[in-house]
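dumping this here so i dont lose it
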């Protein structure tokens, strides 16, 4: 009986030691790939997208199209379910 208690106590002490050592390790280093909200706002461009882009419609929205030839290179004429299920847009 006493032997079992000793083994359990020893096991608990070892487990507590492992937890203490793992928690006492050095803190994680800051990942430089993430920005704070101030850094993010500072890095944003203040000028809105150009409205004279021939590949975009009014206000920078995708331009409407009827076939692939209506779209600029790199754009695909297709349906955008967020805008319309009937009209096609250069996406």
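and the seq i came up w/
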């Amino acid at each position: 009986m006493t032997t079992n208690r000793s083994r359990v106590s020893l096991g608990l002490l070892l487990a507590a030691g492992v937890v203490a050592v793992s928690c006492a390790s050095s803190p994680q280093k800051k990942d430089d790939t993430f920005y704070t909200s101030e850094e993010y706002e500072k890095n944003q461009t203040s000028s809105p997208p150009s409205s004279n882009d021939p590949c975009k419609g009014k206000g920078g929205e995708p331009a409407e199209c009827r076939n692939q030839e209506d779209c600029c290179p790199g754009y695909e004429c297709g349906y955008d379910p967020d805008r319309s299920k009937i009209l096609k847009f250069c996406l």
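Helices lie at 2-23, 37-43.
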